[in-house]
Design a protein that fits this description.
- This protein is of the alpha/beta class.
- The protein contains eleven helices and seven strands.
- It has one domain: Rossmann fold, CATH 3.40.50.
- The strands form two sheets. It has a five-stranded parallel beta sheet with strand order 2-3-1-4-5. It has a two-stranded antiparallel sheet with strand order 6-7.
- A hairpin with a 7-residue loop joins β6 and β7.
- The longest helix is centred in the middle third of the chain and has 22 residues.
- The radius of gyration is 19 Å and the shape is globular.
């Protein structure tokens, strides 16, 4: 997620303030007809596939083409987007998002919002959207598959790219490749820690692997926690990243197989300080030699 140009960010912020003010004076009429469904997840964890499954329900809508409303809020895709203490006006965010939905959504509707960066502030966001109905779904995936996907798609990833705040000290003596995979593992673990903190608020916990194993069962579980999703399809073909539309398929083994043993070891080293969060998500660290 790239940083927005400062001038464009300022104009967008002014527009959003105007939308918020107008909503207080002249409500859109949709406020009482929206059920917000937030997906708490890490990037490349299968949220696009889950969102497309949810989109098969007649009442489901999304804020943007990729289902991430953060793109509409300058602060949520600016340099401080991963800062959990970033001051935000959640009433304004809700007004901006509601204004977008009021132009195209049925009544009632469920808005599927899956911006990954919001795991650092999900409880605050849900509280700020009160009294509207909100459902929180968590989505996890094997962290080694996540890291393999990141390594392929974000080769320039580093701790200065707003993935993490106050990164831990990097181990000494690593070459460039080892340092990269340690960083990838550390960022994944750091994000999983925020997922762990949401466990007492989550309405439905899903995993990438579980969804693929039982799509009809997943659809039924989603309808139970959010009845407005009635009509969701039991099977669906999805378009994820640059792959052709296809049935949901577990890509973990394929992606992890591209990691060398040393790279797996470095990912493990990065994940190790966050072992509790990894295990809370339902996964285990892979064996790693003791670092010298």
């Amino acid at each position: 997620m790239d940083n927005i140009h400062p001038v464009k960010a300022t104009l967008n912020e002014l527009r959003n303030k105007a939308i918020h003010l107008r909503s207080r004076l002249v409500p859109t009429g949709y406020e009482d007809h929206i059920h917000w469904l937030f997906i708490a997840t890490l990037p490349n964890s299968g949220s696009t596939a889950l969102a497309q499954l949810l989109a098969s329900a007649p009442a489901a809508v999304s804020l943007t083409s990729n289902g991430e409303g953060a793109w509409m809020i300058p602060a949520l895709h600016g340099p401080e987007r991963s800062n959990p203490d970033l001051p935000l006006n959640y009433h304004q965010i809700k007004a901006v998002w509601t204004n977008r939905i009021a132009k195209k959504a049925p009544k009632p509707c469920v808005v599927v919002e899956k911006s990954p960066t919001n795991i650092v502030r999900m409880k605050e966001m849900i509280a700020g959207f009160a009294p509207s109905q909100c459902t929180l779904v968590s989505l996890t995936r094997d962290p080694y598959a996540i890291c393999a996907s990141w390594a392929k798609r974000y080769p320039g990833m580093n701790t200065e790219s707003s993935w993490i705040i106050d990164p831990p000290q990097q181990p000494k003596g690593l070459n460039e490749d080892e340092a990269f995979y340690w960083t990838v593992g550390m960022i994944c673990g750091y994000r999983l820690k925020f997922m762990q903190h949401l466990s007492d608020r989550v309405d439905l916990a899903l995993s990438y692997e579980g969804i693929i194993e039982d799509v009809p069962g997943t659809a039924d579980r989603l309808k139970k926690v959010c009845p407005i999703l009635d009509g969701i399809e039991q099977e669906v073909r999805v378009k994820v990243k640059d792959y052709a539309p296809q049935p949901l398929t577990n890509m973990n083994d394929r992606q992890i197989s591209k990691l060398s043993p040393r790279r797996i070891e470095m990912i493990t080293a990065g994940l190790t300080p966050f072992r509790n969060a990894v295990e809370a998500a339902g996964y285990q660290l892979r064996p790693s030699a003791t670092m010298q």
